[in-house]
Every structure is written in structure tokens, then in C-alpha cells.
Amino acid sequence: MKRIAALLSLVVVSFLAGALPSAARAEGAVSSASGKYKIVIQVTENDPRNWNLALNNAMAFKRNVGAGNSQIEIVAIGPGLNMLKSESKVTDRIGQALDKSIDVVACGETMHAMKVSKDDLIGGVRVVPGGLIEIANKQREGWIYYRP
User: Fold this and answer.
1) Which among 106, 109, 103, 53 is positioned nearest to 84, based on CA atoms?
2) Does the pLDDT at position 22 exceed 50?
3) Is pLDDT above 90 for 60?
């Protein structure tokens, strides 16, 4: 009886060992087929240190996974919008991020409340109707949310 149980265990283990790698390969194919890492970063502080942290994180991530393997969007909401104005202390860094295909987005609701126009912003910054809606939509699409 012990021999039959041992033989049956061996058959089950052999079956699982053969099935698991193919299942893992199938799952990996789906993951790689889905494409890039997608990260949405929220910045709400009017502080160059916080913006530089977010920009450093975004650029380092893109560099480490490969430029073509990631899609990154930084969303400015509330006081964070001030760092997207053309006279901002991080204007050059935001320009570098835009040059590296990191999307920088301004909250339209915040712009309306602060009486800021698109012309007041750094060139290349995109405006969305609402920053929180933008983040929520990205998360619904499977994007990873990060807030430094």
C-alpha cells in the first residue's frame, strides 16, 4: 500500500512539475504582452524638494527599467501646481522630465481656483479637467499610484 501511495505521489508531483512551468510561461506571456510599467505620481506640495524627489524617482525608474518599458505621469494638484508655473524653481528639471517622455499634468480644477491659465505653465505641461479624476482613472486602468 505504501508503494502505491508513493507511486501516486510521484505521478502527481511529476504532473504538477510539468504543468506549473507552462502555466507560469503562459502568465508571463500575458504580463509581457500587457507592456510597460505604468506609474502615476501625485505631487501636492509647493516645495522644490518634494518636486525634485518626485522627478528623481520618475527618472531613476525610467532609467532602471529602460526608457521604452515605462509610462510615467506626474500629476500636480493643489499647491503643487505652483511648481508648474514658468517661473518655478524646478522649471529646468520639469523640462528634463518632459524630454524623457515623463508626462507632467496640471489639475484644471486647481488652475481654475488659483486663476492660473495654460499660458502661465511651463511649456509641455498638459492640463486635465481634474487631477484626482486623472489619478482615479489611471488606477482603474491598472496604473501604480505613488506619492513621494
Assistant:
1) 106
2) no
3) yes
List the chain domain ranges. Answer: 1-34, 35-146
Is residue 33's pLDDT more than 70? no
Strands 144-146, 70-76: parallel, antiparallel or unpaired by DSSP? unpaired
123 pLDDT above the threshold of 80: yes
Kindly report the three-state secondary structure assignment for every residue of 5-46: HHHHHHHHHHHHHHHHHHHHHHHHHHHHHHCCEEEEEEECCC
Which CATH class, in words, describes the domain spanning 35-146? Answer: alpha beta
Instruction: Answer yes or no: are the C-beta atoms of 77 and 51 closer than 8 Å.
Output: no
Q: What is the pTM of this model?
A: 0.77
Sequence-distant (6+) residues with CB within 8 A of 88 are 48, 82, 94, 122
